[in-house]
Design goal:
Layout: H1 2-9, E1 15-17, H2 21-30, E2 39-41, H3 51-58, E3 63-67, E4 79-84, H4 95-99, E5 103-106, H5 109-115, E6 124-126, E7 143-150, H6 163-175, E8 182-189, H7 194-204, E9 209-213, H8 217-226, E10 229-232, H9 252-259, E11 263-267, H10 272-275, E12 283-285, H11 288-300, H12 302-316, H13 321-334
Parallel strand pairs: 1-2, 3-4, 4-5, 5-6, 7-8, 7-10, 8-9, 10-11, 11-12
Helix pairs in contact: 1-13, 9-12
């Protein structure tokens, strides 16, 4: 949402409804966003704000863009654009609020597919997230890389991103003769997940497996640039028809890896299938046996790896920030 604000601020006056300006400044600093012309205004969408005040404030805006968790605000702006980033279980059914929606935009076809039934007869589109590529030419090393948050699922003993599954798969590869390769997992970690993460690290002992924990973006890109293969497994073993939110909704880290020429070998589920075209710019898998066999093939077929790597770099350009900003401007002007 902050990138949307930055994109629009070049041609429009942009306000952000938020109560703590330092929060947004921190985000802008972290992601190198230019927010110099953006104003922070009191958050009239807070539950403590009376409806009459929100209506009075929002009537002066030409466009309001709202990030939704299924809720819909009642506003009086000329246009209301609602953004949804994940599959939802339910949504506000108020006909008065729904009539105010100009358009809904999703972060992937996958997200749109699972939400359209909740928002019938409302125009929608897909606006892929922007991905900033910081690739530099360096010598590639025999590294399989995974990037993702380590988060424990409260409903069962495991993790959302399936890092446990990937570690066990790599261990089996080493046990069956793979040499000269290492698996690097770059993760962000919360204090409440530290105990489970300690188990993951313990399981990896004795194998060429490394962990990068909460590393700065520049350090992460050094690893992207050196790696050859990228793994992603979110959604593996899950009933995605019942819990589509367990799959990757889009896959920014996959695009980042591709932008650095890292060949993705990712699960055939969720938003990953919109990023990777199997056999052209990466490989998709359905079973762990496929993950291992396709990885081994790529390890030994340098010509195939080079072609997929080249195509992956090209595909990543589809998701640049420049393209995103053009699409945002078009969304606002044409809706």
């Amino acid at each position: 949402m902050m990138t949307i604000a930055e994109c629009l601020s070049h041609q429009h006056d942009v306000d952000i409804f938020w109560d703590n300006a330092s929060d947004l400044i921190a985000v802008a600093t972290r992601f190198s966003l230019d927010v110099s012309t953006i104003k922070i205004v009191p958050n009239v969408f807070a539950q403590t704000i009376p409806l009459w005040k929100r209506l009075l404030v929002t009537r002066k805006y030409d466009v309001i863009i709202f990030l939704s968790d299924g809720s819909i605000p009642l506003v009086l702006s000329k246009k209301l654009l609602v953004h949804i980033q994940q599959p939802l279980q339910s949504a506000d059914q108020s006909s008065i609020k729904r009539k105010r929606i100009t358009k809904i935009f999703y972060n992937s076809l996958f997200t749109r597919k699972y939400n359209q039934k909740l928002f019938t007869h409302i125009p929608s589109m897909v606006l892929y997230p922007p991905v900033v590529i910081k690739s530099v030419p360096v010598s590639k090393e025999n590294i399989i890389l995974h990037v993702g948050r380590f988060r424990v699922n409260s409903e069962w003993e495991g993790d959302y991103k399936k890092q446990f599954v990937m570690v066990e798969s790599f261990k089996k590869m080493i046990d069956t003769g793979v040499t000269g390769w290492k698996f690097v997992l770059a993760v962000s970690l919360r204090a409440e997940d530290a105990e489970q993460f300690a188990r993951l690290r313990h399981n990896a002992k004795g194998y060429p497996i490394e962990f990068l924990i909460d590393v700065p973006n520049d350090a992460l890109w050094k690893t992207y640039n050196k790696a050859k293969i990228y793994w992603h497994a979110s959604g593996y073993g899950e009933d995605l028809s019942a819990h589509p939110d367990y799959a990757e909704h889009f896959g920014i880290s996959t695009v980042e890896a591709m932008g650095a020429g890292v060949v993705p070998i990712v699960i055939n589920a969720g938003g990953q299938t919109e990023i990777v075209e199997n056999g052209k710019d990466g490989l998709l898998w359905n079973t762990l046996e496929e993950l291992v066999s396709k990885t081994k093939k790529l390890m030994h077929d340098q010509k195939l790896w080079q072609q997929l790597s080249l195509n992956a770099r090209e595909k990543a350009q589809k998701f640049t920030k420049e393209q995103f900003c053009r699409d945002v401007q078009k969304l606002v002007s044409e809706s």
